[in-house]
Design brief:
The chain is mostly helical. It has helices at 2-10, 67-94, 101-104, 107-112, 119-130, 133-146, 149-175, 182-225, 229-238, 241-275, 284-297, 314-332, 335-343, 346-377, 384-388, 392-441, 447-474, 479-490, 494-502, 508-533, 540-543, 546-570, 577-585, 606-635, 643-671, 673-679, and strands at 12-13, 16-17, 688-689, 694-695, 706-707, 722-725, 748-751, 759-760.
Length: 800
């Protein structure tokens, strides 16, 4: 009796006890001839009201959605968004003032969006391009495998790279604002050999990212609709080729904003459904209880007491380290992030990347805390193979919302894939146009040739990415494997590329040696670890294990800077940063007034950028320490999470998701309110600076001379205001009479130089210094002059 009571207590949570016959039983592990002995311990039914008992997998039966809907999604929805985005590009082009067309419709604007993107749109773009298929799928997979530590380590481990990249983004504006690609910096610093080496790593990064996008997207589309994986692998990337090639970088920003908005709306829908809405769960307490039950049935190896509700997770920590290391490569070596920083206004650069990084954190953290944990709490028959393919979110969505949930997940995933795919396509196109075609094939390429080659590059990469994805699918490599392995291949290029903008003594030999040496060390360490842990067996499966992946990732990121620093210290380059600005300035194909840093005291000036650099160091570094050290340490006393602590944890996820949605949907619309008004016809296009999206009378005019009294010579953007100059002491003003209280003093007015334009004095006039007085009347000034009205000062040039 005592033994039975002990056994009963070990498999019970409150009044609920897990049947002993079901402890450790899995759908796939107990499957024989299409039937298993597995049962849903809660008795939950699927969305059709049928039992899950006896299932060998969740998606082993009929797809949740009809195949026709899948074809409509990847072709119809893709076409709708392509038409929508292209229409926005067309309308904005029609709304351009004539004088702005030269700034907008040229090759510089095609590749850099005019270098005038605001902070809010930049944040939305960062969220969009950093939200891969893996963000939605792999994050929930690690939640399913490791419990609450999985979402946290996925989110924090992939947020700090964007936060720290804000430092490099500022350095672009401070040291080389005219660049088109990161490789132009490498070329000036270290020459042709280094340029070719890092061209390889940049293209490899784009290839890995694109492959992950399509592998995850095609797997989910196939599982939920039955559409061929091969067809989906080609149609998904080709769906965005049209508007990317037509609209250039500006077109990708419009697409990114709309895609991000829908992704956040879907995310919040799932959160409310799981934790607050009518469902089999419906509250944090219920999810907490069910997760405690799941730990009895399927304890997580490596977690303290097998709990899903603890941060004491060996596998979770290993994943976190691999995640941190691997994602440095996919940010710092990905041209799309450099291109995004290049496209920003200087004052928006660091704000956009810091805000974007913190907003992005909500997507994997909130999404996986919702759908990943719900997969365990609902005790669904999801196999580890299905989880590895990223199918946990669609499984939970189908259970909770039926076909509507399935469609919402597929739509969310499709938009996540395409929003990143367009950025990757344009990034590769820019590398090909500027760093291959113009650098080695046609150095004298014209602007029209650059645009043509870029568009060909977009189409070509769309086709190549489909081919690579099919090859990976055929050899059995899935999303999870590629995600864990990416740092082995590209982590070695992170520090050398960072040194290109931050360390003047890094030499070409050091940079090349660090990148290549780090890659070799990673490959050796990866394979040796796999062999040592598996009796000499080195294959896809053994290489995909946690410790071999960890070894390769760490060696790739850490050996590289050791080699680079060692070689460089032996023969430092001592590079002059002024040379970087001068030489990259010659790479401009067409004139761009935003391709140089202002020397004034404005928010886009050099002094402001120096302050922004110091702020980015503190903010990026401080937030990174908070996310990967302080926060996880503060959770350790709660082991496992109590109901109240878990409720607080979910509340943080809710609040973060809502605030992030506001920052990336509402804030960009507020920033663009004037610009939207032009497109909708509310404002005249001549009232607005179309390039910057603000009223012309709010923008400093270009520096040029304007003669006093000659309004025709003044810039078109001259503000209708003036600076009052009191009369000289010896100069009688016509019509002058004793001043009355509140009366405007007599004198005359001139355009105010405080808005950007110096004033050339009329012949014979003595210059004045604000707010000083003229010391003598102008030579030849009329002795008498009729006033407009008694006591009113005469007006010169009509500019008052």
């Amino acid at each position: 009796s005592g033994i039975m009571d002990s056994m009963m207590g070990a498999n019970c949570v409150g009044d609920f006890c897990v049947p002993l016959s079901q402890i450790g039983v899995t759908p796939a592990g107990s499957c024989v001839d299409g039937m298993s002995s597995w049962k849903n311990v809660h008795g939950y039914l699927n969305f059709k009201g049928e039992s899950y008992d006896g299932s060998c997998s969740f998606f082993g039966g009929t797809p949740a959605l009809p195949e026709g809907l899948g074809w409509f999604l990847i072709i119809g929805v893709g076409a709708i968004f392509a038409i929508f985005t292209s229409a926005i590009v067309y309308l904005t082009n029609q709304a351009l003032a004539n004088e702005d067309e030269k700034d907008w419709n040229n090759s510089e604007h095609f590749s850099t969006a005019g270098r005038t993107i605001s902070a809010g749109i930049t944040a939305a773009d960062v969220v969009s391009k950093w939200t891969w298929a893996a963000t939605l799928l792999q994050s929930s997979n690690v939640a399913y495998k490791f419990g609450v530590s999985g979402p946290f380590w996925y989110a924090s481990g992939a947020t700090i790279q964007v936060l720290l990249f804000s430092i490099l983004a500022i350095e672009i504006k401070r040291k080389c604002p005219a660049i088109h690609t990161v490789l132009e910096v490498v070329l000036v610093r270290w020459g042709t050999a280094a340029h070719l080496v890092f061209l390889f790593f940049c293209l490899l990064t784009n290839l890995i990212v694109t492959a992950m996008l399509i592998l995850g997207g095609s797997a989910v589309v196939n599982a939920l609709t039955g559409v061929s994986t091969y067809a989906a692998s080609f149609l998904i990337p080709l769906g965005v080729v049209g508007y990317t090639a037509f609209g250039g970088l500006k077109g990708t920003y419009y697409a990114s904003f709309t895609h991000t908005a829908i992704i956040y709306i879907a995310l919040l829908t799932f959160m409310f459904k799981v934790y607050a809405g009518p469902s089999d769960l419906g509250s944090t307490d219920k999810v907490h209880t069910n997760l405690a039950i799941s730990a009895i049935r399927n304890p997580i190896e490596g977690n303290n007491n097998g709990s899903h509700l603890t941060m004491f997770s060996r596998s979770g920590l290993i994943f976190g380290i691999v995640n941190i290391v691997g994602n440095f490569g996919t940010v710092f070596v990905d041209q799309s992030y450099w291109q995004g920083a290049i496209a920003c206004r200087p004052s928006a650069t660091y704000k956009g990347y810091l805000l974007g990084g913190m907003c992005w954190f909500a997507i994997p953290f909130s999404m996986a805390t919702t759908l990943g944990l719900a997969g365990r709490a609902l005790d669904l028959p999801i196999t580890l193979n299905e989880a590895g393919q990223g199918l946990v979110p669609p499984a939970v969505a189908v259970h909770l919302m039926g076909q509507g949930g399935a469609f919402l997940v597929v739509l969310q995933l499709f938009l996540a894939v395409t929003s990143t795919a367009n950025s990757e396509q344009l990034a590769v196109a820019s590398l090909f146009a500027y760093d291959v075609y113009k650098r080695y094939i046609n150095p004298n390429a014209s602007a029209s040739q650059i645009i043509f080659v870029s568009r060909v590059g977009v189409l070509t990469w769309g086709i190549i990415s489909g081919i690579i994805s099919v090859i990976l699918f055929e050899i059995g490599i899935g999303l999870g494997w590629v995600y864990m392995a990416m740092g082995n291949f590209i982590g070695c290029a992170v520090m050398p590329i960072t040194f290109a903008l931050t360390w003047k003594d890094c030499s070409a030999a050091g940079a090349i040696g660090g990148a290549v040496g780090g890659l070799i060390a990673a490959m050796i360490g990866w394979m040796v670890a796999a062999s040592a842990l598996n009796d000499g067996v080195v294959d896809k499966d053994t290489l995909g294990q946690d410790y071999p992946m960890l070894s390769g990732n760490l060696l790739s990121l850490c050996i590289s800077p050791i080699i680079a620093v060692g070689i460089s210290l032996a023969a430092p380059q001592n590079f002059d940063w002024n040379i970087l600005a001068e030489q990259t300035g010659t790479y401009i194909v067409e004139a761009d007034r935003h391709a140089e840093l202002k020397e004034d005291d404005s928010e886009d000036g050099k002094a402001a950028m120096d302050k922004a650099y110091a702020f980015s160091l503190k903010a990026g570094g401080g937030l990174s320490v908070l996310l990967i050290i302080i926060w996880p340490l503060l959770t350790l006393p709660q082991d496992p999470f109590s109901k109240s602590y878990f409720g607080w944890w979910v509340t943080v996820a809710f609040i973060w998701g809502i605030v992030a949605a506001f920052c990336t949907i509402i804030y960009p619309l507020y920033e663009m309110r004037v610009y939207i008004g032009v497109v909708l016809g509310i404002y005249s296009k001549d009232e607005v600076d179309s390039v910057r999206g603000v009223f012309r009378d709010q923008v400093a005019a270009p520096t040029q001379e304007a003669k006093l009294g000659n309004v025709e010579s003044a810039p078109a953007t001259q503000m209708p205001q003036g600076m009052y100059l009191p009369p000289a002491p010896t100069m009688p003003m016509p019509g002058q009479f004793p001043m009355q209280p509140g009366m405007q003093p007599p004198g005359f007015y001139m355009p105010a130089p405080s808005y950007g334009q110096p004033v050339t004095m009329a012949p014979g006039m003595s210059p004045v210094t604000m707010p000083g007085l003229m010391t003598a009347p102008p030579a030849g000034f009329p002795a008498t002059m009729p006033a407009t009205m008694p006591g009113a000062p005469p007006v010169f040039g009509g500019n008052v």
